[in-house]
Batch of 4 targets.
Target 1
Amino acid sequence: MRAVIASEPGGPEVLTVTDLPDPEAGDGEVVIDVTATAVNRADTMQRQGKYPPPPGASEVLGLECSGTISAVGRGVEGWSVGDEACALLAGGGYAERVAVPTAQLMPVPKGVDLVTAGALPEVACTVWSNVFMVAGLQEDETLLVHGGAGGIGTLAIQLAKALGARVLTTAGSQEKLDLCRSLGADEAISYRDQDFVEEVKQATDGHGADVILDNMGAKYLDRNLSALATQGRLVIIGMQGGVKGELNIGKLLAKRGAVIATSLRARPVDEKAAICAGVVEHVWPLVTDGSVRTLVHATLPLAEAAEAHRIMESGDHVGKIILTA
Ligand SMILES: NC(=O)c1ccc[n+]([C@@H]2O[C@H](COP(=O)([O-])OP(=O)(O)OC[C@H]3O[C@@H](n4cnc5c(N)ncnc54)[C@H](OP(=O)(O)O)[C@@H]3O)[C@@H](O)[C@H]2O)c1
């Protein structure tokens, strides 16, 4: 099969299409003939040599895919050759075929085409697991989503709104701020021209954000604490602003707050299974009824993975960048 690997750590140019042996379905696994995968920030970090795959995972890039099941391993129940599915992967999505435990398979939501479905698993699982399973966002609470126009942000805004929360978000340009509002954000704050701490306080009459979904890490740690409500939960999922920050424990303690950081990729299969099941139960119905949709910025063939990475790293995109196998 054709697959994309990083031949050495470096820029997008190190992404190489190569021939690899077809994967086989192990016990409890299926092989998917990939229709589409999508680019994630983690792929760009893996390409740079900063985010190696977890032990046992494929060297081939790609954390999600959609496609058609072409082989079924021993002990698999409920899935058959010819079924369409999408999947959360520990790696291996930038390829014509990938083996995946059935626990990480999800049906394609009704009304979504198979190509677009390749861009859903990673964002849906990340947002559902962090904002709802970990941080427990409630209907009457306020969520602050940093980077509302990105792949994660666009889905987080829509999902939190659909489930009844108030949503504040940050973005870097007027066009992206407008997009966030059109997706349902109650307030869209320019991270370039405005002080998000002040804006959050004003928008919540001084209460603060009950949950913050953060992509920036160190750079925003202290300001996120300032923007957090009493008993607020700050969930850090990205390190775009660095990995080492100073935590003011006094500020956190006074707010009886929580700072949590998670990574989806390295979690054991049973945790991923619970997340995928939650997504199918709670998120897919909202995708099917149109309350939550995937925003696709560009769709490129797998052979143009390098260009797809350039687009993501330019920061000009909104929503997801899809690669078709
Ligand atoms: N831990 C996990 O399990 C997990 C899983 C998936 C993703 N992630 C992380 O989630 C983050 C978002 O992923 P993605 O796929 O949505 O990437 P993406 O589409 O490239 O989005 C990146 C976002 O970062 C925003 N941004 C850049 N500088 C910012 C700043 N100073 N303040 C606030 N926002 C800023 C961008 O906003 P503008 O476009 O408006 O400039 C953009 O919305 C990444 O850091 C990724 O690594 C983590």
Target 2
Amino acid sequence: MLRLTGTDPASGRTLRVTVHSGRISAIEPLPVATDAILSAGLIDLQLNGYGGHDVNATGSTADTVADLARALWVRGVTTFCPTLITAPPAAILAGLRTIRAARDADPLLAHAIPSVHVEGPHLSTADGARGAHDPAWIRPADTAEYDSWQRASDGLVGIVTVAPESPGALNYLRHVAASGAVPAIGHSAATPEQVRDAVDAGARLSTHLGNGVPQQLPRHPNLLWEQLADDRLTAGLIADGHHLPAATLRSMARAKGFGRTVLVSDAVALAGAAPGEYHTPVGGAVTLHPDGRLTLAGSDLLAGAARALPECVGYAAGPGGYGLAEALRSATARPAALLGLPDRGVLRVGAIADLAVFTDPTLATAAATVVGGKLVYVNGSAPFDVDPADDARDR
Ligand SMILES: [Zn+2]
């Protein structure tokens, strides 16, 4: 048995949550105040890497995936979709097999990684829209390739991002939807009509809306308004404070409705590193600034996202206009619902015990993290509240 205490931002009350046999067995209000924030563990639907661990790197292994998960647990992220980007067919298959092997080796990893997000390779080749995806490996939508991913990973692909204008995209979106995965659209220069057709074909998620679009668009109509207006689409938003200016994030969230947004980090492996100069295989020389902005060296051009999801939640809560409770929902219950995982992402008796306690409302530092009922991280220096009478530390 394990007990965690902290303030629940949704109710403003201090709660004590008891964990038993992997589930939340009790939730009790306590008549005390605390700065610590108690939440369901955060769920990141789009993440390439963190803490130096990169699922897209050549030579990544099952240990890379396991190390990545542990690095995220330190931040209070309990569930994530490792995101494989545009690459040669064999490289995507290798990435999927690696993640599958990591899950097969550890039931806790299998729990923490319910599915993989494949972002690409059926994207726009236009500059701006394609972002950093290698145009040499962008190719038309291909259901046979999708089927090969599912075979290689034992059905692990849960989100696929495709450009609506990719040749064959509509048939592809229908195929992905019929298989049970979430069809997403992004890295696109589509017309509004192509966006509508894609949603009619089953698209449910806008991948990092507002990023991966052409630098110049007609003021209206365009693919941004179309996606904002269509309630069938949930908007994924990178709330790192750099990919979307505060007013853009706030306006998009209001236009969609906070309830139709999910926050993602889209973090790269350098996220979590100390500020400084680095060299990356894709970006070359890059600078990680103290405020978390990652740019090409000597330029202001973004070279990826470098903030963990809890920092994005903190940014959305403040400058993004969400408030903390709403921002947390968009990083817990909402992504869980999109993935079809109603038993996680919520503080509810009977739900799976994926929990995070943060030292304060900025969520910058996790005090404790529980995954599947197991205490996987404790910040020894944090003023925090885990009942030590537990045997859950042994994994
Ligand atoms: Zn992207």
Target 3
Amino acid sequence: MILAGDVGGTKTLLGLFERSPHRPTCTAVRSFPTAQFGNLGDIISAFLGAEGASADRLEGACFGVAGPVVEGRAVLTNVGWAVVDADLRRGLGLDRVRVLNDLEATAWSIPVLTPQELETLQDGEPTPHGNLAVIAAGTGLGMAIVLRQGETYQPIASEGGHADFAPATEREMALLESLNVGGGRVQWEDIVSGRGLVTLHRFTHTRPCAAVTTDLDAEIAPAAISAAALAHRCAACVEALDLFASAYGSAAGNLALTAVATGGLYVGGGIAPKVLSVLQGGRFMTGFTDRRRMRALLDGIPVRVILAPEAGLLGAATAALHST
Ligand SMILES: [Zn+2]
């Protein structure tokens, strides 16, 4: 039995998995509010207790954590505690415990996802052992690269979402200027994330928005903006989501170039499946491919959206099996 986790600042998903020929089979999954616990060990105890499961039966465990992981240690900044592999080994009485970045965990799910769990934005012409890359907008903007050498499959975490935003159009230039007040850096994550969608909403509205009446600082604001845009209830909301799709595609194209991801670029995270029709509308792919000399390389890269909502958890379970 495998224990897998997807640990975020707001919620933590834990799951139990059994070995299976194609991919680990999930036998139990529960969601916990991260901030209500003092550490991950307490959440694990609550989960195993609720499932009537014992840590003695575990053969391995793996946790994807939102944020950089250094020497097996990840700090969840908004809850003020860290996830440390050595502490978890001790607490679970288990040698085989891995702590990964959440996108690194998602990358481990790609080989075991089914065609029904993916939506293709561009077929491309994949090279059999080409590198892969994963980008995922949600609370933040996560990225990972998968190195391929022969049959090896090695996900590597990246903090590329914190790289500098580069505008490609006059409108994006104006956006950058509006955010760059005081000369501070503007990161991709400032635009391509739930919070970024709110920023874009503020940028495109010169008068109050009649379609989104919720407080823009509320957690549900990004979903309210995308719903208003998808229903065409407000032209400025539509522009905000269009700008989001373009910037998402540009960030994905940059990542694909950085990784030379000729095996495929995968779009994960919670936002993409909810705005799929806009991503399919062309702006995402224009942002991805529209760059002079590298166009041919980018045209050949398959681009797929991950529809499976718990790909991070599945990937963590898959990674745990690779290390056991
Ligand atoms: Zn609006």
Target 4
Amino acid sequence: MNKTQQDYLEQEFGSRVTFRKTERKLYGHDIAAMPGIIKPFIGSMVPDAVVQPETEEELVELVRWAGKNNVPLTPRGKASSGYGGVLPVKNGVVVDFYRMKQVKHIDAEKLTATVQAGVVWERLERELKNKGLTLRLYPSSFPAATAGGWLAQGGAGIGSYEAGWFRDNVVSARVVLPDGETREFSGDELDVISDAEGITGLISEVTLRVQPLEELDVVAIGCPDAIDLQHMVQAMIDNKLPIWSLLFINPRMAELKNKAPLLEHLGHPVEERVLLPASYIVTLAFRKKDHDALMKALPGVMKPCQAELLSDRIAEHEWKNRFKIMIVKRLGPSLVPAEIVIPLSSLGKVMAEIEAKVAQPVVKEGVVVREGASGQPEVVILGFIPSDQRKFNYSFVFGLTLTIMNIAEKYGGRPYSTGLYFARMAGKVLGEDKAAKLKAFKKKVDPRNIFNPGKVIGGGVIGLMMIAVRAFEPFIRPLGNRVMTHLGERPSEPVRDIPADVAWYAYGCSQCGYCIDECDQFYGRGWESQSPRGKWYWLREYMEGREEWDQAMVDTILVCTTCEMCNIRCSASLPIEPSWMKLRGILIDDEKKMTIPPFEMMAASVRKEGDIWAAYRKDRDAWFPEELKEKHGPKNKAKIAYFAGCTASHVETDIAEATVRLLDAAGVDFIHLGKKDNCCGTPMLVCGKWDVFEEILRSNVQNMKDAGVDTVVTSCPACDMMWRQTYPVWAKKLGIDYDITAKHYSEVVTEKIKSGEFKFPEKVPDTTITLHDSCHIGRVSSVYDAPRDLIKAIPGVKLVEMEHNRENAHCCGSVLTLIKDPPVAADIGKSRMDEAVATGADKLLALCPCCQFQFRVTADKKKIPIETVDLARFSASALGYKFPDPNPEVQRQWAVFEAMIALMTPEGFAKLMGTMWPELVDAMPFGMGPMMRFMGKVPGALTLMKPMFPVLFPRLLPMMMPKVMPVMLQRVADSVPMPDYMLEQMPDLMPKVMENLMPHMIGDVVPLVTQPMIDYLRKGDSK
Ligand SMILES: Cc1cc2nc3c(=O)[nH]c(=O)nc-3n(C[C@H](O)[C@H](O)[C@H](O)COP(=O)(O)OP(=O)(O)OC[C@H]3O[C@@H](n4cnc5c(N)ncnc54)[C@H](O)[C@@H]3O)c2cc1C
Ligand code: SF4
Ligand code: SF4
């Protein structure tokens, strides 16, 4: 792509286009791991650019431009397909539909929904439910896949038993054709759009049929073999049993599911294992109102097939986990896919022949379509063979896919889809008529073949290869069958510097995309590199030597908010956030790469005064109510201590004060350690400065032990996370005795309320509030009820929930993101606060000082009309206490941080140096200062020296620093509006910060300062 073309895209799409190589790479693959043998025939699949249109008008503009410039366009929904349809084999531009995700209209009377193509099924279903409606069918990739993607790819899914293929549930689709015209397709016209994978046009909008929401019920049935299964399902159809969805798995799948890892939290399983019998397990979903009729009829169809009803527990487990088929990938760590459609009448024979011919364990999931394309029942079988893509023999196992395809065809079946790999078999896959229609339409509308070239009917080399290889299937099969398959997780050695378990997970990730839309780092920026899926893919590239760590990638790991949303979203139950945590330690603590710069200032401050705000330890407890000191001050003894943490002690002090008021009023016997209260260490842990974290942990635990405390009560979820979850693990690792329990004040106070020892005496004016669940006490410690119980105990208060609440609550976007990328943090914060505003609540209650800080900063930047109030403050106010408004202090502190953040960048440091050239030159060692000044006067001398600057500067700067420090401190003071106490401490803090940062940053600073320094030397000054 030439510069003019890039400029055009940049001008049209601004931050919604990327040319960054690392990013583009992440838009050049789908879920399938392509065998090494095929890759060279495809060549580079890295697009030249990725764009994210927001509207149909933008799509039209893009299409017209692409036509004029002959630039190939490859549409991409969530890339959850695996046939190569999204691969930009001719490079060009990937059109990512992520931002076209509006639900435009729901018609409850006509039972239709009109959506932009990029809407994800899960989101649409949520909106439908709010209107008493539901989807007629959806793919098992429901948490990730898009409406446009499914229409373009074609398919059946959950609900297809009753509703058929997706295309038959589409009323119409608006499509941008290759000449830029937009047309609406409906009825038979959809033949040239559905299953066409974008080769004929970009789908911008889909109108689909929906149905009234009715309560569902599920049962599970065990069936001994495939032929019995076939007969039983046929009998269900013949007897018109009122079933909505019929899914089944084969015994191998049941066996693997039994072996699959459970969802873990902090290294412990958080779900129970439900053992499945080694049989075909059918999961039926039906409307509750049909329960009696179905249950009455089932024995009649099951008995002749020796089938039996399985427990409710199994039924619920299978239904609950219906989107998590990829969990078995953890055992591979790769899966070779084989997806076929066969007539129900040949199910038994197909299964038997696969068993006979394929010696590898083939795990299968099936979807029954009661009335298939031919009017007869069909079965979609998604088969997987566990394998290891890192091994050469993976290609042979891949060959077995063709064996399965051949078997399907022998019995009247076909491959599920065309995509890239089966593009020469369109007639078989789509039916000869439809394929012919599609070819003719493609020829007419896109004669230059710029819309998703090489796919569906493309005549590319891959399709040819597949046909050729199929001819050799009988010879390849024995090779594939002979490969030894090991099942189970077996991480062995670290790969490069990636720990063995994390390396395994990287390959275990199915690339399904479930984690993407709900990751705040993704929706804050909109690019895959920030999502867990993108990071896993990058790690694979890194481990295979095609990528290297740079600061941008280190930051990508560091900046993750640790919200833990991805852990519960992951279809493979991967411990994602803990893996990033491990990498933080490796990158920063072990390898001494640069952390997010302002954390160096926090580290220096923590080491000196025990807090991250560069405040004095002597002021740590200035907020503590004088009259409570005698009862709860550090001179007392109690088993419970309130640990306030840094932000509540120094910035939002209303939180700390309100908490002790509340605890006191509730009759809790507690102490506060006074000036010994300390930073909990979370900032040091997450920024990778684990040496500082360890120091903090040791001193905190010792302080509590010395005070005879066994329970630490917190008001900050990050502190709570340390005392409750992190310290115990680290203490064990460090050989420290740890016998401390942690509780949030909301838990302690609600205990008192429940036991009848405390109640709120006064009625506050009627208030409607909404509650933000902090990630660090919600998903990390599952404390959801206590804050709600506390709120409910206050008379006159009504709690309304936000769209995402409890374990699904979205993150506020704080700390790491706020410090690294304030504008992104504001976008994330806004998306959360918008949800709060949408509830109509008067106030947004938060129970975390850091979330509140972020909300206050966000509200100020984005002008969001809802007041943020701390839960403790709100509750203690109901007791009649008054507290100072924390907002002015928050804004003051944020101004300091914002200026520090800007300063601690290469540009910031370059600017700072630009204010002190005379001092810098004077500070040069070995008499170089006068020499440089002299060179400035000799024409051309500095130009000659210029190439040496990148070598000289890093060596000289450490020697110059002590000399220029006083003036540097002065200049920093000029640009950062620091409070006096911070200013006073700068001479102690700054040298340490510079010592740690400069070695990393100097390489980026030198190019920025070289010319300004030369200019200064040429111009000279009074010296
Ligand atoms: C765990 C899992 C379960 C799955 N279950 C099912 C299932 O039950 N049934 C099923 O059919 N499939 C299933 N799939 C496959 C896949 O999820 C579906 O095909 C899905 O519909 C693809 O949607 P997508 O948004 O990811 O599209 P993508 O994969 O991004 O795209 C699919 C094709 O459509 C094209 N395309 C995308 N958007 C547009 C557009 N707006 N205009 C024109 N062309 C476009 C792409 O170029 C590509 O060729 C599953 C996949 C996974 C990982
Ligand atoms: S922990 Fe949160 S921010 Fe980090 S990767 Fe997971 S979902 Fe994204
Ligand atoms: S991390 Fe999990 S949810 Fe995300 S793409 Fe990988 S397997 Fe899917």
